[in-house]
Amino acid sequence: MVRCRLDTLTFLVTILSTAVVNSIPTPPQRLVVRDETTDRLSERKGGVFFKDGQQTACGMAFLTNNAALVTADCFDFVGGKVDRSTIYRVYTSRAFTKTTEGFDLRDIIVHPDYNPETKANNVAAVTYNLGEKLTWEMDTAIDPGTWEARVYAQRHIKNMTGLIWDYPEYTTEDKIEQDDTCSDLSPIYGENTDKFACTSILATPLMKNSTACKIPYPILYAQMGDKLYQAGLYSHSVVKGGDNLCDNDEVRSYYTLIGNYLAFAEAALNKKFTYHSNDNSSTPQSDSNYSMKNAPRIVVDGTVMLSGDFYNPKAVVIVSATSADGASIITGTEVKGESAAGDSSGTSKKTTIIAAVCGTIGTLILVASIFFGIRWYRGHVSKVHDPYQAPSAQNVLDEMFVNADGSRPPPAYKPPGEAPAEEIQNTDAISDSSPTSPRYSGLNFPREKA
User: Fold this and answer.
1) Which ranges form a coiled coil (predicted)?
2) Which of 27, 220, 227, 435 has the highest local Cβ count within 10 Å?
3) Within 13 Å and on the Cβ side, how many CA atoms surround 43?
């Protein structure tokens, strides 16, 4: 009988233990689906661009083992030149060399006609890893009309200690059809429809804690046959019916086709680069001074243009229409789900005005609620307590104002003769910067070699 009871007890303990273990939630894991396109991307030498040790969402395309093209918007500018006090670094994936390393950038040459307002010629040629003996090349796609599909991709290093990469993620656009909305939203695209790729596709960021919004893919590949070739770098997005990528009516993202800038890169870096086309007789345009057509305006009324590093809200550049022939540029402003102190161009945006009005109304409602709450409490307490000896009302107020910048509220009731409490007024300083600030333009020539 005793043995039977022990066996029964053991059985019950086992069942309960199993139930407890199964009830413990397991952390979510990202499901990686391996397919032909993922394998093709893994075979291409890809990279990630870092600024001051922080991984970015910026687009970059390797040309060789020591040269690359990078979206110009991703650099910091001071006095019209790239700010070299910022540490720029690239990491190469393991594709076909079976090694992954990080290298500081050496030469950074921004296209001389780069326009940070319209996003024309949004590219920079860079060098790195000049002492490496291992050499390799990456073909760049030309002739967009011959591409079988577009593949938008992103890469991410998930473990910096061991330099462990996530599998590249992508979205394929099989049918490349004309989208009139692309021209309607972006003036620079309307003037250069064959120099950009445009899409409505956005990606869930691989760096999960960076932003709550979906973001543009950093790089575009062209599929030709059973291979992928780098074809474009992310330039900018235009939002209609909102001011961010989370909440809007429409959004289009634009990619600079880099085949048009191989000649510029060759002249700037004194190197030769390879390309690929389905037409063996085709060659990329050969003018090293090539530049896009100018746009008649920066943005369209009722739209907002976004660009930069979407992993860092301080590095996002926002351009919005303020009048029929003007625009305001704000760098590092508030992004959906995140906020960062930014510089205003002096011309208020509609969204800024709305935020200010809503903030003012909210503050008035809060102050009125506190005021009437205090009056109600004083009337309630005076019925049962001596107002000069009752600490409970003061304690309630202390709790209401806890963590309010370290300040404390005035006493609920002041004894006769006590001096009135000081009023502290906080003001937020707003720094102004011109839309034509030199930080947005210019050419940075290579450093002098030591």
Assistant:
1) none
2) 220
3) 13
User: Model-level pTM?
Assistant: 0.67
Residue with tokens 């060399």: 97
The CA distance from 221 to 251, in Å, is 21
Instruction: Spell out the long-range contacts of 268-274 with Cβ–Cβ below 8 A and sequence spacing 24 or more.
Output: 268/109, 268/125, 269/67, 269/107, 269/109, 269/125, 269/127, 271/63, 271/64, 271/67, 273/63, 273/64, 273/67, 273/137, 273/140, 274/137, 274/138, 274/139, 274/140
Strands 123-128 and 67-71: antiparallel
* Cα four-point dihedral sign 296, 298, 301, 305: positive
* Whether residue 209 sits in one domain with residue 264: yes
Per residue in 249-287, pLDDT (tens digit) is 999 999 999 999 999 999 999 999 999 999 989 999 999
DSSP 110: E
392 plus 313 within the same structural domain: no
* pLDDT tens, residue by residue, 160-173: 888 888 888 899 99
User: Which of 164, 168, 273 lies closest to 218 in space, CA to CA?
Assistant: 168
Q: Which of 405, 147, 186 is nearest to 304 (CA)?
A: 186
Domain shared by 188 and 323, yes or no = yes
pLDDT in tens, 61-115: 999 999 999 999 999 999 889 999 999 999 988 776 777 888 999 999 999 999 9
359/289 Cα distance (integer angstroms): 49
Same domain, 210 and 106: yes
Same domain? 310 vs 369: no
Secondary structure (DSSP) of 334-348: -BTTB----BB-SS-
Q: Is residue 423 part of a domain?
A: no
Q: 86 φ, ψ to 5°? A: -80, 140
pLDDT digits (tens, 9 = 90+) for 410-433: 444 444 454 444 444 443 433 333
Total domains in the chain come to 2
Domain-embedded: residue 295: yes
**Dist CA 256 CA 74 (whole Å):** 14
Buried-exposed string 43-56: b where 16+ CB fall within 10 A, e elsewhere = ebbbbbbbbeeebb
Using CA atoms, how far residue 284 sits from 90, 139, 276, in Å, is 26, 12, 9
Beta partners for 124? 70, 110
Domain of residue 370, residue span: 353-400
95 and 232 fall within a common domain:
yes
Cα(416)–Cα(243) distance, integer angstroms = 54
